[in-house]
Design a protein that fits this description.
By secondary structure, the chain is of the alpha+beta class. Helices cover 34% and strands 18% of the residues. The protein contains seven helices and twelve strands. The chain has helices at 24-44, 49-73, 78-95, 106-125, 131-148, 173-180, 325-329, and strands at residues 152-157, 163-167, 242-244, 247-254, 257-264, 270-277, 281-282, 286-287, 294-296, 299-303, 308-313, 319-324. The radius of gyration is 28 Å and the shape is elongated. The chain starts with 23 loop residues before the first helix and ends in a 13-residue tail after the last helix. 27% of the residues are buried.
């Protein structure tokens, strides 16, 4: 006659009233420590290297700690020990082809910590439940956690590394810009004077040191707040501005074209725009050119994210010549696109 007790773990079946997870406090500590560190760094050091590394590496550390807990320390029967990590991993892999392209990295950096945290909360709530419904409930919880991230997109990151999140079916800012913008430039005649001491003709200024001597800025904005003169949308990109006299030159994305654009500084009106076929996009920084145009001797030189170097007449935007640097040098397009300002 067998002497084993039906209450012993060795006699438990997948749906027997076995004890729930043990050392659940340790799993909760991992989750709380992760969120504490991430939110702490985000609050007290936003936009820093520590913030970036915490956001990027933290989820992987949490996943490793949770895997160790699940397999070695959870006290669950072997089926649940395997089911937990397997369901989590399969859910993450399943949504990769379904998420918006801007969320490819977000599956790891944002979705995975939420899914792991929700799993711990569920295990706490269902700690006295039978193994089978506990596992089925975990599958449902993970399904909803992972599925949420198929519904959103990231429109970009601010300087504080804060993500701008939208529903993926909403129009993007670029789409709103293209729908709202006037299709015709002002077309008024330009005649740019020689570059003066107050002009900013290229990236980071005339000496490329972000300095302009002989001018002062009122820095007490409480006493002398700046006044908004005008604003309007422009296309996405990472270009800054080259400014000569009353005209500002920049690069931006307009649908499937890169645009080199001249704006009139007093009112922001578009003077001319030269379109070059080509679109560059990558998951961290989004769409658009990366470089800043350079003004020199009546010409504007612009380098696109796909490697096209263009020279334009600064007064009219007429193309003078262009060279495809990427093709001529057989260079591999960098992960972040060509970014060198001429």
């Amino acid at each position: 006659m067998s002497t084993s007790s039906p209450l012993e773990p060795s006699a438990a079946t997948p749906d027997s009233p076995s004890p729930g997870p043990t050392r659940l406090g340790l799993a909760a500590a991992f989750v709380l420590l992760f969120w504490g560190v991430v939110l702490g760094v985000k609050t007290f050091s936003p936009g820093s290297y520590a913030h970036f590394m915490t956001t990027f590496i933290g989820p992987m550390v949490l996943a490793l700690l949770m895997l160790i807990w699940w397999l070695a320390l959870s006290g669950l029967n072997w089926r649940e020990r395997l089911a937990g990590p397997l369901l989590t991993a399969l859910g993450g892999l399943a949504i990769v082809p379904l998420v918006d392209k801007s969320m490819k990295m977000g599956v790891l950096m944002f979705a995975m910590p939420v899914a792991l945290s929700a799993a711990v909360v569920w295990l706490f709530l269902a700690r006295r439940t039978r193994p089978l419904p506990r596992t089925l409930g975990l599958a449902v919880v993970l399904f909803f956690c992972w599925s949420y991230y198929t519904l959103i997109r990231i429109d970009g990151l601010g300087g504080d590394l804060k993500s701008e999140v939208s529903w993926r079916w909403d129009a993007t800012k670029e789409e709103r810009f293209l729908a709202e913008r006037s299709q015709a430039a002002t077309g008024f005649a330009m005649k740019l004077p020689p570059v003066g001491p107050e002009d900013w003709p290229e990236f980071r200024g005339p000496q490329r040191d972000s300095r302009l001597t002989g001018v002062k800025i009122a820095t007490d904005w409480n006493a002398q707040p700046p006044k908004l003169l005008w604003k309007h949308r422009i296309g996405p990109g990472w270009s800054s501005f080259a400014v000569v006299d009353d005209f500002a030159f920049t690069q931006e994305q307009r649908g499937e074209d890169e645009a080199i654009v001249c704006y009139y500084v007093p009112d922001g009106a578009e003077v001319w725009a030269h379109l070059v076929p080509g679109r560059f996009w990558e998951v961290v920084a989004g769409a658009g050119p990366r470089a800043t145009p350079t003004y020199h001797d009546g010409r504007v030189y612009a380098f696109g994210a796909n490697g096209l170097l263009v020279a334009l007449d600064a007064n009219s935007g007429r193309e003078l010549w262009k060279r495809n640097v990427q093709q001529e040098t057989a260079a591999v397009t960098p992960q972040w696109g060509f970014s060198a300002s001429p």
